[in-house]
Amino acid sequence: MSALSGWRLALGTLTIIPAGSVSPTAAAVRWFVALSPLAVLPLAAGAAGITALGGWLGLPALVTGLLAVGLVALGTRAMHLDAVADVADALGGGWTPERARAILKSGDVGPMGVVALILVIGLQAASVGALASTELGWVLVGVAVALSRWFLGPACWGVPAMPGSSLGAVFARALPGWQAWLWPVLAVVILAGLASAMGRPWWLGVLAGGLALGLALVVRGRARRRFGGMNGDVLGAAIEVALTAMLVVLAWG
């Protein structure tokens, strides 16, 4: 039952696919993290398909990239991009933990949030567009979208819930240390093996996954110091910065 609850929780939280109501438990959260790449597989396949089609049709690189990024945003209700904007505004404008939490909960997008969105969407779209012109680059796009969800594990490991966050209370410390690190490490191994199989340097996958992990940990650390813990926005922001890091490095290589 925990696996089924975790699957439904991942599907309903990470995609627009209806999954019914779930009463999350610590066991369900552990399954949620483990199954999260599978839950977003339709979005990953869609982004990969658009990348392949754009490259085949010879569309401008940025057009292909924006279409792929737009599809993923549509399939997630743009929740993670909204989280990026909220976290950026709260970190930039909250001089006290109380003020930062108030900004985070407000839902308004300020100047810091706008800049963060432009950077994240722009870097993702440009990277996807660059990969569209390479052999089997569409595979890397799909894999990056799927694996990026594993990086929410370190973002909630060993961090208390932000005061007033119900979702944070569910995820906070739900993962034992070995599980929080297992999935990102496995993502690095998969990326390294895939890069090698595609004739690219194996270390490119290690660099992509390592940078994604490092940035997710930066988000986690900043949230703990500034907000007093983590919430759903922090997890969403960690996913987006991890995806951005992977796409940039893979496109560079």
UniProtKB/TrEMBL annotation:
Question: Localized where?
Answer: Cell membrane
Q: Which GO terms describe its molecular function?
A: adenosylcobinamide-GDP ribazoletransferase activity
Q: In which pathway does it act?
A: Cofactor biosynthesis; adenosylcobalamin biosynthesis; adenosylcobalamin from cob(II)yrinate a,c-diamide: step 7/7
Q: Which cofactor does it need?
A: Mg(2+)
Q: Which UniProt keywords apply?
A: Cell membrane, Cobalamin biosynthesis, Magnesium, Membrane, Transferase, Transmembrane, Transmembrane helix
Q: How does it sit in the membrane?
A: Multi-pass membrane protein
The EC designation for this entry is 2.7.8.26
Q: Which reaction does it catalyse?
A: alpha-ribazole + adenosylcob(III)inamide-GDP = adenosylcob(III)alamin + GMP + H(+); alpha-ribazole 5'-phosphate + adenosylcob(III)inamide-GDP = adenosylcob(III)alamin 5'-phosphate + GMP + H(+)
List the transmembrane segments.
43-74, 109-132, 138-159, 180-196, 202-220, 232-252
- Segments forming a coiled coil: none
Q: Main localisation, per the record? A: membrane
What's the top EC group for this one?
transferase
**Family the entry assigns:** Belongs to the CobS family.
> What is the role of the protein in this entry?
Joins adenosylcobinamide-GDP and alpha-ribazole to generate adenosylcobalamin (Ado-cobalamin). Also synthesizes adenosylcobalamin 5'-phosphate from adenosylcobinamide-GDP and alpha-ribazole 5'-phosphate.
Q: What is this protein called?
A: Adenosylcobinamide-GDP ribazoletransferase
Q: Which organism is it from?
A: Ammonicoccus fulvus
Organism lineage string: Bacteria, Bacillati, Actinomycetota, Actinomycetes, Propionibacteriales
